[in-house]
Write a structure and sequence with these properties.
Number of helices: 8
CATH class: Alpha Beta
GO cellular component, one term: cytoplasm
Mean pLDDT: 98
CATH architecture: Alpha-Beta Barrel
GO molecular function: D-ribulose-phosphate 3-epimerase activity; metal ion binding
Order of helices and strands: EHEHEHEHEEHEHEHH
EC number: 5.1.3.1
Oligomer: single chain
Bound molecules: ribulose-5-phosphate, fe (ii) ion
Shape: globular
CATH topology: TIM Barrel
Family: Belongs to the ribulose-phosphate 3-epimerase family.
Function: Catalyzes the reversible epimerization of D-ribulose 5-phosphate to D-xylulose 5-phosphate.
Number of strands: 8
Strand order of the largest sheet: 1-8-7-6-5-4-3-2
Strand content: 15-25%
Radius of gyration: 16 Å
CATH superfamily: Aldolase class I
Helix content: 25-40%
Largest sheet: 8 strands, parallel
Number of domains: 1
Length: 217
């Protein structure tokens, strides 16, 4: 069970210090948005390169951008351990996943809430993680969409014994993480839940404990 907090709701003027507040995180989830794939703009490659220099923690880059085929490899070259791109945006997802792995990164495929996992079933052997959006991408602090839970179960079923992580992203909190874990998710993005907590690192550990306990049922 991995907790990968999103820095979307952290203080962007103090990113290094904000990341240092969550030493027990399993990775730092960085949301890259481009005003094209989603109606929001965040940060891009230069900031990711600066983050890379400021921390040894695993970087989990979530690209919500148009044309990831063109831009995603640079994030692997910048030293990100995991690069996620959206299937709705990629022109050649298998070629891109292979390129990311060739560059030494984990390759990960993201699906919007309305995108079916069965539509990408044949590509699952090419990736290290599937990110299932549990809100419409673009903003932090949105309400978790329960309608994604059957897709988490279906993804687990399709993956079988394969060692592919299932990450959920959007509205994950102490209220919703157990449902995700019971359905088969093993990697959890939490943005506002972590950074609105008085003690973000304690929240990371609390979320992990809830996920572990839910899975043991
Ligand atoms: O990809 C994202 C939004 O598109 C973010 O990772 C996600 O929304 C995290 O924030 P929160 O936990 O507040 O929902
Ligand atoms: Fe994200």
């Amino acid at each position: 069970m991995r907790i990968t907090p999103s820095i979307l709701n952290a203080d962007f003027a103090n990113l290094g210090a904000e990341i240092a507040r969550i030493p027990d995180a399993d990775a730092i989830h960085v949301d890259v948005m481009d005003y094209r794939f989603v109606p929001n703009l965040t940060i891009g490659l230069p900031v990711v390169e600066a983050i890379r220099k400021s921390t040894q923690q695993m970087l989990d880059i979530h690209l919500m951008i148009a044309d990831p085929d063109r831009w995603a490899p640079s994030y692997a070259e910048a030293g990100a351990e995991s690069v996620t791109f959206h299937v709705e945006a990629a022109k050649a997802p298998i070629r891109l996943a292979r390129e990311l792995r060739r560059l030494g990164a984990r390759a990960s495929l993201a699906l919007n809430p309305a995108t079916s996992i069965d539509s990408v079933a044949d590509a699952l052997g090419e990736v290290d993680m599937v990110l299932l959006m549990t809100v419409e991408p673009g903003f932090g602090g949105q309400k978790f969409l329960d309608l994604v839970l059957p897709k988490i179960r279906r993804t687990r079923e399709l993956l079988g014994e394969r060692d592919v992580w299932i990450q959920v992203d959007g509205g994950v909190s102490v209220e919703t993480i157990e449902r995700c874990a019971e359905a088969g998710a093993d990697t959890f993005v939490a943005g506002s839940a972590v950074y609105s907590a008085d003690n973000p690192n304690a929240m990371v550990n609390r979320l992990r404990e809830l996920a572990v306990a839910a899975c043991a049922h």
